[in-house]
Amino acid sequence: MQASARHCASYFAALAAALACFAITAPAQASLGAPQASVNTDVAHLRAQLKSTPAGTYTMHELTGDGGMVTREFTNSAGTVFAVSWSGPVRPDLQQLFGDYFPRLQADTHARARLRRPLRADDIDFVVRTGGHPRAMWGFALLPAEMPQDFPLEVLQ
Q1: Which element (helix H / strand E) includes 2?
Q2: What single string gives the DSSP state of each residue in 23-83?
Q3: Which of 5, 41, 44, 140 is deepest in the core (most CB within 10 A)?
């Protein structure tokens, strides 16, 4: 009976450890490709002030954080976040901004061994560009299939 109790205790310890790992690595609600409600999650996560500006077939949500970080999230008329851009002294939490698309960027980055170079992805349904230097970082990510036809790409830069 003592062996069963030890087995049960070790099972629960392993289960608790696995759940803790999942809780740590699971992204908060995704932004890119997610509903507009995820913008509010990003506001809280990034500790930012929000200003939303409708512009025809899309809305720009500008999040201004402490330290000069500006993040813009763009939603289409269906309420889907189809693009994000940022500029500021550091690179933002890309896992938070990219959500379910973040592992694709990681896989592309590891496959090309980019190390300290700018991040870049050129898939048909997911485009990423980053650049800058310390204290002046910038970048954007875009889902072309979700982008309104009249969306001016210049606003991402």
Answers
A1: helix 2-25
A2: HHHSPSSP-TTSBTTHHHHHHHHHTEEEEEEEETTEEEEEEEEGGG-EEEEEEETTSBEEE
A3: 140
Q: Which distant-in-sequence residues (6+ apart) come within 8 Å of 117 by Cβ?
A: none
Quickly state the pLDDT bin for 28 (edges 50, 70, 90).
very low
Residue that has been written with the tokens 């077939």 in this structure: 57
16-20, 90-94, 98-102, 126-130: which has the minimum mean pLDDT?
A: 16-20
Quote the tokens at residue 81. 């976040």
* pTM for the full predicted model: 0.74
155, 84 in Cβ contact below 8 A?
no
Measure the CA–CA gap between 112 and 115, rounded to whole angstroms. Answer: 9
